[in-house]
């Protein structure tokens, strides 16, 4: 895949970029490692000052970087501005909280004495240079939620971004440079996917994080495992959205639309499978299908647009094949189902509601990365749990109920990294984020995320004679 900005609303190639040579990549790794050896000794207060400065600059750049993101991957420009604002918020949260999150931890006096120590504590130390392999769907947020904790922990970062968002990738390097971070603290590597293995095998690169597809995750995990290097993986998702009889059905349906089509439906944590109790099925479907069919598809730079194009032509083709397979095997498209009329250019796909999904359809087992909702009718909470868990993924989940017994059941039994009640799944800097099963492992964000790339060190002092 060439490293290029291709406007998905038109299919026009706007800019192309040359990939770094092996020698240029090696030079950047060397700079990152040398910078880390110095930067790791800086105080939290200095790191926080720099990160606050980066957040302030991002606020000033919000309109420009939003238009860049929209032009590169097609998200509505209003959503792109919101993404930039969320990134600045996360930077400030880590700037303000990292020192406390990584403070030394002390066992009880009794446990310390029992270990034979006069003094003992756990210290979080930075690991070194961390490689981030990041996707195009949230081209700013996915990187910042890695970069903010990584830099606050005292590590250095290398970014291998998706090849269709090179301008956003270069902007991020420039942002941290303008904020005053030492040269080499955060660098973008404009390289193809085949060059990732050599970077990961470099002994100066000590760990990696990847957000992306399952095949990409398996590839990075295999190389890192061979090198015995730490990884965090956030992969695909096919999140259930369960609606039970006690829910506020109209509000559940309205939120369901946003949960399904956020980012043009291209979100790992988007609700994709809607499991609706038979007692409220007809009411929910009336509200949900009407709202899905009313969404405006069009130019993502138009402020009134709800749904822009898919990011790549291949992505649209993949989605078309999933929908066609479902319809061939008996599913019904209540709205949408293919390319919208009047959109002759670009990679658009109409918001779609599929009813009558069965387990022999590909869409039941695979992730639909676009504005396509799969609807199921269930008769009980137990059936909803069984169907929700019938997936190789386990990223997050959504449940609408006012019944506390059902709350306990779903929180206990749903196989996912998150269970969100009476609302849609969303990431927040203070909350751990990640999945299980084929959705990956490890956690981003919160204290759990910043500690993923730390050397968790036991520091033990023996008792001196007479003590």
Brief write-up:
This protein is an alpha/beta fold and 467 residues long.
Blueprint of the fold:
Blueprint (H helix, E strand, L loop, with lengths): L3 E4 L4 E5 L5 H18 L4 H17 L1 H12 L3 H25 L7 H6 L2 E10 L2 E5 L7 H12 L3 E5 L5 H14 L6 E3 L7 H6 L3 E7 L2 H14 L2 E5 L4 E5 L5 H13 L9 E7 L3 H13 L19 H16 L3 E4 L16 E4 L6 H4 L6 E7 L2 H8 L4 E2 L3 E3 L3 H10 L6 E2 L14 E2 L2 E2 L4 H6 L2 E9 L5
Parallel strand pairs: 4-5, 4-7, 5-6, 7-8, 9-10, 9-15, 10-13, 12-13, 15-16
Antiparallel strand pairs: 1-2, 3-19, 8-18, 11-12, 14-17
Helix pairs in contact: 2-4, 2-7, 3-4, 3-7, 4-6, 10-11
Name of the CATH first level of the largest domain: Alpha Beta
Radius of gyration from the alpha-carbon trace, in angstroms:
23 Å
The largest β sheet comes out as: 7 strands, mixed
Tell me which oligomeric state these chains represent.
single chain
Derived from helix and strand composition plus strand pairing, the structural class reads: alpha/beta
């Amino acid at each position: 895949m060439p490293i290029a900005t291709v406007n998905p609303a038109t299919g026009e190639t706007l800019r192309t970029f040359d990939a770094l040579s092996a020698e240029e990549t090696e030079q950047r790794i060397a700079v990152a490692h040398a910078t880390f050896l110095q930067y790791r000794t800086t105080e939290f207060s200095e790191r926080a000052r720099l990160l606050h400065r980066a957040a302030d600059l991002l606020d000033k750049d919000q309109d420009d970087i939003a238009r860049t993101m929209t032009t590169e991957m097609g998200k509505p420009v209003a959503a792109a501005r919101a993404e930039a604002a969320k990134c600045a918020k996360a930077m400030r949260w880590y700037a303000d909280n990292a020192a406390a999150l990584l403070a030394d931890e002390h066992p009880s006096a009794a446990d310390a004495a029992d270990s034979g120590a006069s003094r003992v504590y756990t210290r979080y130390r930075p690991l070194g240079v961390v490689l981030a392999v990041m996707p195009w769907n949230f081209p700013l947020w996915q990187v910042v939620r890695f970069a903010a904790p990584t830099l606050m922990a005292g590590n250095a970062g290398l970014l291998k971004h998706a090849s269709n968002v090179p301008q956003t990738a270069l902007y991020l390097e420039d942002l941290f440079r303008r904020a005053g971070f030492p040269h080499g603290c955060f660098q973008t590597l404009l390289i193809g996917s085949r060059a990732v293995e050599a970077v990961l095998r470099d002994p100066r690169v000590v760990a990696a994080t990847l957000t992306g597809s399952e095949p990409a995750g398996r590839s990075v995990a295999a190389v890192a495992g061979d090198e015995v290097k730490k990884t965090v993986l956030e992969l695909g998702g096919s999140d259930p959205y369960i609606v039970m009889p006690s829910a506020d059905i109209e509000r559940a349906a309205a939120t369901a639309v946003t949960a399904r089509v956020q980012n043009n439906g291209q979100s790992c944590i988007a609700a994709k499978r809607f499991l609706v109790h038979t007692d409220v099925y007809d009411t929910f479907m009336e509200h949900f299908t009407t709202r899905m069919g009313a969404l405006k598809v069009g130019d993502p730079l138009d402020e009134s647009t709800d749904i822009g194009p898919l990011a790549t032509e291949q992505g649209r083709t993949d989605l078309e094949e999933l929908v066609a397979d479902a319809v061939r095997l008996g599913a019904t498209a209540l709205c949408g189902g293919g390319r919208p009329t009047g959109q002759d250019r670009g990679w658009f796909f109409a918001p779609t509601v599929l009813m009558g999904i069965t387990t022999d359809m590909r869409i039941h087992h695979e992730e639909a990365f676009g504005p396509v909702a799969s609807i199921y009718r269930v008769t009980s909470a137990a059936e909803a749990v069984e169907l929700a868990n019938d997936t190789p993924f386990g990223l997050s989940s959504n449940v609408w109920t006012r019944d506390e017994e059902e709350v306990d059941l779903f929180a206990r039994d749903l196989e996912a990294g998150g269970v969100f009640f009476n609302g849609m799944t969303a990431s927040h800097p203070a909350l751990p984020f990640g999945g299980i099963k084929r959705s990956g492992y490890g956690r981003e964000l919160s204290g759990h995320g910043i500690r993923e790339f730390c050397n968790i060190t036991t520091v033990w002092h023996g008792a001196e004679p007479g003590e």
